[in-house]
Amino acid sequence: MIHSKQWVFLKGKFEAGQLGHAYLFSGIDIESQKEVAKKLIALINKNVPGSDLAIQKEQFPDLWVVKSINSKSSIDNEKDMMEIDIAQIRDANHFLSLHPYYGNHKTIIVENAERMNTEAQNSFLKTLEEPKGKTLIILISSKPDMLLATISSRCQAIKFFSSKEPNAKEAKNQVLQELLPVINGDLAVKFQYAKKANLEGDNFNKMLHILQRYFRNILLENIGVVEKSRVAEGKTFTIGQLKKIIRLIENLHKQVLIANVNQKLALEILLLEL
Fold first, then answer.
1. 264 touches 194 (CB < 8 A)
2. Integer-rounded Cα radius of gyration of the chain
3. What pLDDT, on the 0 to 100 scale, is given for residue 166?
4. Can you give the pLDDT at residue 173?
5. What is the DSSP letter of 116?
6. Boundary residue ending a domain (163, 196, 224)
7. Which of 1, 65, 204, 237 could form a disulfide with 199 if both were Cys (CB 3.0 to 4.6 A apart)?
8. Phi, psi at 158, each rounded to 5°
């Protein structure tokens, strides 16, 4: 199974009667985190007939899954607004206050937990610190740094590493090498790249992160903090231009996280500044 170390650790904790009540799963491989979370919940309910399949389908009465797509704003607008609102967390808190249907744990999975707005996170604090009865809460996040420190500190951290992550530096360098001709190219090259770019999943966020780091390094080179590198050779930028580009990347990154923005249009806007 993928991520056997994490699974073996959690399984061992359960069998030893030492399973915690709140865990923060983090890493870029969200699907594997969800797989392990559901398998753990199935283990807890192993004596319940049909629980494994019901949990996988998220139809188990003692499991509550919180998703941004189910927020009130998303339901009203028929699209994922990329935010988990306080009403969803209040519903989750109420669910945990009830007795388990099968007499085992009440369980919560919060997908993309970093999407909880500040009100939602604050509403979750007491439940994370002092849950009622047998409770298991699993927060799943690819961006745990965006969670309030008070949330993270109440959870036991379990880190997940993609099978490709040992070569993450090589993958980032490859993306950067693909972007350099675009950065140094004319408008036609930039529009053509934006048109064909694969922005599915978390690809756009990864691209923004790579560009942010690239331009930050150029800024540090220009002010003499670090030595110039070959990677930064090409089009030259003033310090003012670099600051503007870095701020734009930061703003786009925030918008992508909290709103359902047109990523191709956002990429075009960014490339026009390069």
1. yes
2. 22
3. 45
4. 74
5. B
6. 163
7. 204
8. -125, 115
State whether 180 and 84 are in the same domain.
no
Q: E strands within the chain?
A: 22-26, 63-66, 106-110, 135-141, 156-159
- CA pseudo-torsion sign 18, 19, 22, 27: positive
pLDDT at position 103 is 72
Quick one: pLDDT at residue 232?
52
Task: Decide: 22 and 154 in contact? Cβ < 8 Å.
Answer: yes
Please name which of 6, 8, 2, 44 lies closest in space to residue 24, comparing C-alpha atoms: 6
Q: Where are the alpha helices (DSSP H) in 197-238?
A: 203-222
Give the residues across from 23 on adjacent strands.
138, 156
Q: What residues contact 50, with CB distance under 8 A and at least 6 apart?
A: none
Distance CA 89, CA 252 (A): 27
pLDDT of amino acid 227: 66
Cα separation, 57 vs 125, whole angstroms: 28
Measure the CA–CA gap between 69 and 73, rounded to whole angstroms: 9
The CATH number assigned to the domain holding 110 equals: 3.40.50.300
Residue 224: domain span = 166-273
Locate tokens 């699974």: which residue? 7
- Can you state the angle between helices 187-196 and 168-183, rounded to 10 degrees? 140
Judged against a pLDDT cut of 80, whether residue 255 lies above it is answered with: no
Amino acid at 183: I
